[in-house]
Every structure is written in C-alpha cells, then in structure tokens.
User: What shape does this take?
Amino acid sequence: MATAEDKLELAEKHLAKVQLAWDPPDWLELSLFGFYALEAAVEAAAIHCGMEVKKNHPARVAAAHKLHEDFRLPDVAGLLRDLNETRKSEAYGDVVAPDLDAEDVASEVELYVAAVTDMLGG
Assistant: This one.
C-alpha cells in the first residue's frame, strides 16, 4: 500500500509536467497532469489524515472537499472536476471544456501540492 509520502512524490512528478505545459498552454498535458497531480496530492493528504478514499474520481473529489472543510487545505474539488472535463474534452473531443486560465490552473495545482507538502511536514 502506498504511503502519504509515496503519493506526494507522485504528485510532485506530475506537477513538474504541469509547470512545463501552461505557457504556451498545452491543454491535453496541462489537464491530464494537473488532474493526476491533484488526485495524488489529495490521496497523500487523506492517507496522512487517516481517511480512506476509494480509487475513483468522485471519491477523490469528495475527499478534497472534506480535507478543505476539516483540515483547511485549499478547496480543489471544483478544479478536479474541471480538469477531468478538460481532459475528456482534449482526449475524446465530445465534451465541452470549462473555461480555464492555464496560468491559474498551474498555480492552483502548485499551491495545493505545496500545502500538502507542508501538511506532511516537508
């Protein structure tokens, strides 16, 4: 079973790809790796806080919201949903992507991973 630190390391690897994909925006890369980075960071925080999270998108969105409410992490539940829709739009072309700003997305993902890093004591 992965530890909180393992999940945070994975989030940081995905974040590095996010930081390369926002200027100029490559929405496929940005949405995919932003989504993966946030989900891994949510899992890291949840493991650290003793929360069990099912391995599916809705459960991770719910966990992100609970981590915000109970542990004051930034609320990224909406961003997780938006990135998932953008990822599907870019990958499949049959979903309308939400209106997102690439720089804001990259910044929010970076801030969340940093907040989880702080929570884990790093």
Q: What stands out?
A: Residues 4-119 form a domain with the Four Helix Bundle (Hemerythrin (Met), subunit A) fold (CATH 1.20.120.330).
